[in-house]
Amino acid sequence: MAGLKYSRQRESIKNYLCGREDHPTADMIYTSIRREYPNISLGTVYRNLSLLVELGEIQKITTDGADRFDAKVIPHSHFICKKCGCVMDVMVPVEDPAANVNRLWEYGDVEECRLEFRGVCKTCKKNERQA
């Protein structure tokens, strides 16, 4: 985006995400960023998150609950717990299906491929056994 003006708030949001492994929601980010910028609005956080996603500086992870955000933009997958909603990075090599499909050109130009794993996390499984 040509002419994008620097924003301390946007930089703070990005830095906050870079220091996290738990894939926070916009509300979680808003609560934290308000400590540094007490007058920031939730709408400003949402707009900056959308812009950072559009710029490719962060990624949005759609879950059954609130969207989650991840500053790790290198290719990787996620595990999403169906019980508690936690999102975890899965850093295992996964062959890119788009590289092996000969007929994808019929659908359009493939720009990315995402793979998500959904199930029940270890913590929820442990809690189930204890209950």
Number of helices, counting only DSSP H or I runs of 4 residues or more: 5
Query: Percent of residues in helical segments?
Result: 25-40%
Instruction: State the end-to-end CA separation.
Output: 52 Å
Overall outline = flat
Helix/strand structural class: alpha+beta
**Total number of β-strand segments?**
5
Largest sheet: 3 strands, mixed
Measured by DSSP, the beta-strand proportion falls in: 5-15%
Detail the poorly predicted runs: none
Q: What is the gyration radius calculated from CA atoms?
A: 17 Å
Strand order of the largest sheet: 4-3-5
**Overall average residue pLDDT:** 89
Q: Spell the H/E element sequence.
A: HHHEEEEHEH
3D structure, described in words:
37% of the residues lie in helices and 15% in strands. The protein has 5 helices and 5 strands; from the N terminus they run H-H-H-E-E-E-E-H-E-H. It is flat. The termini are far apart. The mean pLDDT is 89.
Give the arrangement of secondary structure elements.
Elements: H1 8-18, H2 26-36, H3 42-54, E1 59-61, E2 68-70, E3 77-81, E4 87-90, H4 97-100, E5 116-119, H5 122-130
Parallel strand pairs: 3-5
Antiparallel strand pairs: 1-2, 3-4
